[in-house]
């Protein structure tokens, strides 16, 4: 299919809107109400409906699931500005995400930067079409914040690495087709210099996973075990023992993503003020409780400032500059803000805000409780808030150790 016409941004906007109106099924223009509506793709993809399947197929064929990737790698070859316009049009039409993908969000950008041509051609197009589902094998039982202490070993044997060890907190490992994984290839080197970045097919003999159950009742992540797993050496990304640079670049993309992420399942389509008025009523058109009014006003202003700062930073990166250490500031602030916002919502809902299941609670109330519980993890995953503060101190502000 030809690129949408319109060299200027407004022409591009009009063409994009027309394409979306023609191609996004009506049911995909309603808000997703729960995680069951999400589409993660993969070899064993589960679609909540035929419309969801069609929507992914069309968006994938158009390259719109990975808008800024080059077309030869499954993207749409859009500039950052065009991608922003696409995003705005998707939002204004109320389109659901066609695909959720760690492969698109995290692996793709670093594969474009560090991958060989063969790796890009093999992995990027099927990832953009949602045919491959990825998981992230970084954390280990004794290597979370101190990630560089990881112990999973990879030893070269002929044309393959033999991998032994364990990962933990690996989101969706039991459903993923492939893992991007950090392994220790030189145990004698200083810890940051003996790490490599490997792509591992989860069907390989010797790979097993065990789901971990969370406070929210869901079980979105796993322990993953490697027992003599043979991984072709051609699946090593970047330099042998140079995996830390790839790992850090990926984390910056991950943190940029988490900082933009709201627990979309709840609270985005209605303002805090409106939720409060609905639950608590008003006196002369205003909330009676001045302290609550103040907290809501503060949270709304902080949220607006955060959105504008993110927008300014995104526009500053128009040149295509990859995200840097400043993503730690956005990750820290965005996740703490999201926790505060959800905490306010459950507080406003009173006892109705603590229901996890039961027909006496509305679907929105159940969703808000789950989103509140889930938000606690936002400031841990991708590196905890304390670790972001350390990075900001050292790499952004240049403070001494
Ligand atoms: C929902 C969720 C999904 C996740 N998904 C994945 C995934 O897909 N793949 C993956 O690899 N990992 C994943 N993780 C793991 C995540 O990256 C780690 O939990 C995180 O890096 C923290 O590591 P830890 O749990 O080992 O905590 P620890 O490192 O043991 O930290 C414990 C506490 O000590 C504090 N602390 C530690 N070191 C310092 C320090 N130097 N200075 C100040 N405070 C410090 C931390 O801030 C934290 O409060 C996920 C986590 C969550 C919650």
List the helices and strands and how they pair.
Layout: H1 9-23, H2 50-62, H3 80-92, H4 102-114, H5 117-128, E1 134-137, E2 153-157, E3 160-171, E4 178-184, E5 195-201, E6 207-212, E7 221-232, E8 236-237, H6 243-260, H7 272-280, H8 290-316, H9 327-349, H10 363-378, H11 385-396
Parallel strand pairs: 1-4
Antiparallel strand pairs: 2-3, 3-7, 4-5, 5-8, 6-7
Helix pairs in contact: 1-3, 4-5, 4-6, 6-9, 7-9, 8-9, 9-10, 9-11
The structure holds flavin-adenine dinucleotide.
Give an overview in words.
With 401 residues, the protein is α+β, with helices and mostly antiparallel strands. It has three domains: 92 residues, Butyryl-Coa Dehydrogenase, subunit A, domain 1 (Orthogonal Bundle), CATH 1.10.540; 110 residues, Butyryl-CoA Dehydrogenase, subunit A, domain 2, CATH 2.40.110; 136 residues, Up-down Bundle (Butyryl-CoA Dehydrogenase, subunit A, domain 3), CATH 1.20.140. The protein is built from eleven helices and eight strands. β6 and β7 form a beta hairpin. α7 runs parallel beside α9 and α9 packs antiparallel against α11. It is globular, with a radius of gyration of 22 Å. The chain starts with 8 loop residues before the first helix and ends in a 5-residue tail after the last helix. The model has no long low-confidence stretch (mean pLDDT 91). Bound molecules: flavin-adenine dinucleotide. The site of flavin-adenine dinucleotide has 19 residues, from β1, β3 and α11.
């Amino acid at each position: 299919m030809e690129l949408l016409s319109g060299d200027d941004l407004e022409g591009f906007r009009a063409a994009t809107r027309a394409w979306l109106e023609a191609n996004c099924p009506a049911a995909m223009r309603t808000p997703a109400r729960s995680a069951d509506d999400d589409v993660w793709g993969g070899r064993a993809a589960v679609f909540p409906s035929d419309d969801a399947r069609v929507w992914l197929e069309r968006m994938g064929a158009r390259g719109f699931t990975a808008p800024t990737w080059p077309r030869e790698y499954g993207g749409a070859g859009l500039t950052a500005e065009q991608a922003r316009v696409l995003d705005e049009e998707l939002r204004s039409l109320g389109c659901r995400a066609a695909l959720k993908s760690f492969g698109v969000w995290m692996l793709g950008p670093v594969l474009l930067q560090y991958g060989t041509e063969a790796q890009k051609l093999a992995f990027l197009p099927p990832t953009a079409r949602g045919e491959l589902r990825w998981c992230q094998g970084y954390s280990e039982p004794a290597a979370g914040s101190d990630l560089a202490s990881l112990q999973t070993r990879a030893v070269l044997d002929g044309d393959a690495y033999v991998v032994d060890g364990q990962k933990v907190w690996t989101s969706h490992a039991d459903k993923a087709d492939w893992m991007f994984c950090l392994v220790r290839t030189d145990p004698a080197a200083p810890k940051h210099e003996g790490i490599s970045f490997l792509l591992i097919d989860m069907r390989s003999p010797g790979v097993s996973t065990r789901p971990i159950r969370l406070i929210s009742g869901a079980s979105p992540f796993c322990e993953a075990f490697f027992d003599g797993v043979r991984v072709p050496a051609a699946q090593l990304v970047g330099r042998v023992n140079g995996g830390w640079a790839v790992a850090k670049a990926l984390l910056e993309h991950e943190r940029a993503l988490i900082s933009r992420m709201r627990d979309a399942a709840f609270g985005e389509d209605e303002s805090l003020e409106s939720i409060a008025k609905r639950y608590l009523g008003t006196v002369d058109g205003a909330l009676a409780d001045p302290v609550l009014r103040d907290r809501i006003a503060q949270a709304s202003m902080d949220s607006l400032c955060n959105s504008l700062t993110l927008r300014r930073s995104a526009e500053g990166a128009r040149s295509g500059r990859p995200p840097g250490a400043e993503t730690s500031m956005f990750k820290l602030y965005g996740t703490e803000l999201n926790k505060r916002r959800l905490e306010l919502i459950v507080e406003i809902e009173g006892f109705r805000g603590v229901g996890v299941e039961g027909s006496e609670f509305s679907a929105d109330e159940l969703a808000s409780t789950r989103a509140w519980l889930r938000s606690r993890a936002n400031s841990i995953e991708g590196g905890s808030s304390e670790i972001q503060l350390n990075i900001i101190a050292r790499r952004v502000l240049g403070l001494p150790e």
